[in-house]
C-alpha cells in the first residue's frame, strides 16, 4: 500500500501532530491553574446573559463576534483608570497600557496578570491567539505580536466587551 492509499500514514500523523502543536493549547493562562473554575459567572445561561448585556455586547462576549472598527467610544478614553470586562467586572487592563494602534479597536500592550485566558482561533483558516476574560470566559478579542515596547504585544479588544472604571 502506498502512502497515498493509506490516509493515516506516518507522514500524515506527523504532520497533524506538528500542526496541533503549532496551534498551542486550547486554553492557557499565565496564572497557572484556573482560579475562576468555580465562578458563578460561568454558570449563566444564554438567556441570563441576554438579560444582562446590550445586544452587541452579548454577540461579542458570548458568541465571539467582532464589533465594527472605529465605533467604540473607548477609543477616545484617555483618563487614568482600569478597563474591565463588561460582563463580570473583572479588571483586564490598566489605562497606562492603552495605546493608539490605528486599527479601530481599543488596544493594550499588556493585560493584568491572570485576567485573561487564551485559545487558538482558526475561524479565518490561520491560527490566531484569541483571549477571553478569565472570570466569565467572555470573548474580548485577539492578541498579536505587533505592539509597542516593552512587550511587543497588541491586545486588540472589542470596545463593547469593556467598561472603563475611572481611578
> In whole angstroms, how far apart are the ends?
69 Å
H-E string: HHHEEEEEEEEE
CATH architecture label: Beta Complex
Fraction in beta strands: 15-25%
Biggest sheet strand line-up: 3-4-8-7-6-5
Shape: globular
* Helix proportion range: 10-25%
- CATH fold-level name: Metal Binding Protein, Guanine Nucleotide Exchange Factor, Chain A
So what's the CATH class? Mainly Beta
Indicate the structural class: alpha+beta
Q: What's the CATH H-level superfamily name?
A: Peptide methionine sulfoxide reductase
* Count of individual helical segments: 3
- Unreliable segments (pLDDT under 50, ≥5 consecutive)? 1-31
Got a strand count?
A: 9
Domain tally: 1
Question: What topology does this entry show?
Answer:
Layout: H1 10-23, H2 46-52, H3 55-63, E1 81-85, E2 91-94, E3 98-99, E4 107-108, E5 116-121, E6 128-133, E7 139-144, E8 154-157, E9 162-166
Amino acid at each position: 500500500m502506498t502512502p497515498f492509499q493509506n490516509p493515516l500514514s506516518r507522514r500524515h500523523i506527523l504532520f497533524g501532530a506538528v500542526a496541533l502543536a503549532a496551534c498551542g493549547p486550547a486554553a492557557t493562562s499565565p496564572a497557572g491553574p484556573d482560579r475562576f473554575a468555580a465562578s458563578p459567572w460561568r454558570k449563566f445561561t444564554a438567556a441570563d446573559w441576554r438579560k444582562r448585556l446590550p445586544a452587541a455586547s452579548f454577540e461579542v462576549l458570548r458568541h465571539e463576534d467582532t464589533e465594527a472598527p472605529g465605533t467604540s467610544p473607548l477609543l477616545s478614553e484617555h483618563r487614568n483608570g482600569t478597563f474591565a470586562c463588561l460582563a463580570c467586572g473583572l479588571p483586564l487592563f490598566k489605562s497606562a497600557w492603552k495605546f493608539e494602534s490605528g486599527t479601530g479597536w481599543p488596544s493594550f500592550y499588556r493585560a493584568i496578570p491572570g485576567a485573561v485566558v487564551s485559545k487558538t482561533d482558526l475561524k479565518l483558516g490561520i491560527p490566531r491567539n484569541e483571549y477571553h476574560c478569565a472570570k466569565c470566559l467572555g470573548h474580548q478579542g485577539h492578541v498579536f505580536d505587533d505592539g509597542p515596547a516593552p512587550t511587543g504585544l497588541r491586545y486588540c479588544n472589542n470596545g463593547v466587551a469593556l467598561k472603563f472604571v475611572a481611578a
